[in-house]
Design brief:
The complex is a heterodimer of chains A (109) and B (113). Chain A has 109 residues and is mainly β. Chain A contains no helices and eleven strands. Classes of the chains: A mainly beta (109), B mainly beta (113).
Chain lengths: 109, 113
């Protein structure tokens, strides 16, 4: 099955700085890569996703990049705000969702 | 309207008891999942049902039994609860054929005392 690794496990940044979270996957058949944000006491929610035929996607302050050859993808958050503080999960999927181990992001005001 | 709803949100019970968690989705998805999230926040797949049929059953004690009466519902029944079962359990659904995002419920925090 798929193996998704995610780094770092914790990340603290100053408000206004950028945050980068990286994931690698093992199964070359994976073709869909969503990113989820989980706030305290809530279920994970999709924030951005990318398919294997695209190298980069951007949505306001959030961007995701995918390197299919190297089997890694990254989440970039620019101009971080305190409300970005949460746990972020990457996932790789073909027919089944395999989640990374999560990154706890803290944005310090 | 809530897309994926699970009940109860909190469940406190004694060791040895049997309990159920219910999940319903109104998105018309064909696949539903149960995930367990431990204290380290790892999201571990437990079961996956596609059109009411079990397609994934990860290494989960057989005290856990999922039941899917129809495509919109996937319930989780747990027998003889143990302290180690304490966790947050999430139900999710997706449209497997389209390979799109999974939608998660709000979670059920199970505490076994």
């Amino acid at each position: 099955g798929e193996n998704v690794e995610q780094h770092p496990s914790t990340l603290s940044v100053q408000e206004g700085d950028s945050a980068v979270i990286k994931c690698t996957y093992s199964d070359s058949a994976s073709n869909y890569f969503p990113w989820y944000k989980q706030e305290l006491g809530k279920g994970p929610q999709l924030i951005i996703d990318i398919r294997s035929n695209v190298g980069e996607k951007k949505d306001q302050r959030i961007a995701v990049t995918l390197n299919k050859t190297a089997k890694h993808f990254s989440l970039h958050i620019t101009e971080t705000q305190p409300e970005d503080s949460a746990v972020y999960f990457c996932a790789a999927t073909s027919n089944q969702f395999y989640f990374g181990t999560g990154t706890s992001l803290t944005v310090i005001p | 309207d809530t897309a994926v709803s699970q009940t109860p949100k909190y469940l406190v019970t004694q060791m040895g008891n049997d309990k159920s968690i219910k999940c319903e989705q109104n998105l018309g998805h064909d696949t539903m999942y149960w995930y367990k999230q431990d204290s380290k926040k790892f999201l571990k797949i437990m079961f996956s049902y596609n059109n009411k049929e079990l397609i994934i059953n990860e290494t989960v004690p057989n005290r856990f039994s999922p039941k899917s009466p129809d495509k919109a519902h996937l319930n989780l029944h747990i027998n003889s609860l143990e302290l180690g079962d304490s966790a947050v359990y999430f139900c999710a659904s997706s449209q497997r054929q389209k390979n799109t995002e999974a939608f998660f419920g709000q979670g059920t925090r199970l505490t076994v005392v």
